[in-house]
Amino acid sequence: MSGSFPVVVVGLGNMGAALARSLRRAHPEGKILGVDPDSARLEMLRSEGILEPAPADWKLESGTLVLAVKPQILESAATDLRPRLGKGAVVVSILAGVPLSRLRSAMASDRVVRTMPNLPLTVGAGATAMAIDGCEPEVVGQARQILAPTGEVVEVLESQLDAVTGLSGSGPAYVLKFLMSLEDGGVLAGLPRGVARKLANATVAGTLRMVLESGIEPDVLRGQVTSPGGTTIYGLNAMEKGGFSASVMDAVLSATMRSKELGKA
């Protein structure tokens, strides 16, 4: 992991700061520097022991630069960043919708990996896809090491990132919508709101943990809780009558198409 450090995080909004926190948890001794126009945010992260504000004359001969600025200011930010990067530095971009071609042109480097993380990164349980088109294995490996503490990391082609956006990028909202509906269903059936919320939260969290830790396919696990003529099969039948599965698939597809439209714009 030493080749990945030092790390300079440029842009300390929610995602940039969350990634810095994940790195600090995983690597207490790693050197992490932060760059952001908000001095109060820098001071907050410094006081938490997450990072140190980068000195005015900082340079990164090797290690990793995490690019987390707003996409619309990429070129202006890159004007300052380019002279600071040595040939051994790897750039990991978490900028939504910015293609590799633009990133590599702006940073004047081929050692750039484009990624698409999602919001659970903020608690170290994210799902991040890396576009590895044209990347050397060493560059991919370094980016993976940086992202590993944030959760699941997968490698895809850049052409697949719109689908990633539709699935895992937007996916937390779908899961939260289901969670809220499950809670409301409990209230509709007569449970107090607080009780319904606790049961819904525990059910979703426990089911996902069961899938991840058991290694058993979800369809097999579903069969284990679905008795012939029992309550669960009646509930599942009601969900399918409402078009549940098709609605979820349509949500992923619609978000994917919208991601493509925004990319063209």
Can you put this structure into words, describing what you see?
The protein has helices at about 15-25, 40-45, 75-80, 100-105, 135-145, 160-170, 170-190, 195-215, 220-225, 230-240, 245-265, and strands at about 5-10, 30-35, 50-55, 60-65, 85-95, 110-115, 125-130, 150-155. With about 260 residues, it is of the alpha/beta class. It folds into 2 domains: about 1-160, 3-Layer(aba) Sandwich (Rossmann fold); about 170-265, ProC C-terminal domain-like (ProC C-terminal domain-like fold). α3 (about 75-80) links the parallel β4 and β5. The radius of gyration is 21 Å and the shape is elongated.
What's the order of the H and E elements? EHEHEEHEHEEHEHHHHHH
What profile does the largest beta sheet have? 8 strands, mixed
Strand content: 15-25%
Radius of gyration from the CA trace?
A: 21 Å
Mean pLDDT: 94
Task: Briefly characterize the structure.
Helix 2 links the parallel strand 2 (32-35) and strand 3. The chain has eleven helices and eight strands. The model has no long low-confidence stretch (mean pLDDT 94).
What topology emerges from the helices and strands here?
Layout: E1 7-10, H1 14-26, E2 32-35, H2 39-47, E3 52-53, E4 60-67, H3 74-81, E5 85-93, H4 100-107, E6 112-116, E7 126-131, H5 137-147, E8 151-156, H6 161-169, H7 171-188, H8 193-214, H9 218-224, H10 231-241, H11 244-264
Parallel strand pairs: 1-2, 1-4, 2-3, 4-5, 5-6, 7-8
Antiparallel strand pairs: 6-7
Helix pairs in contact: 6-11, 7-8
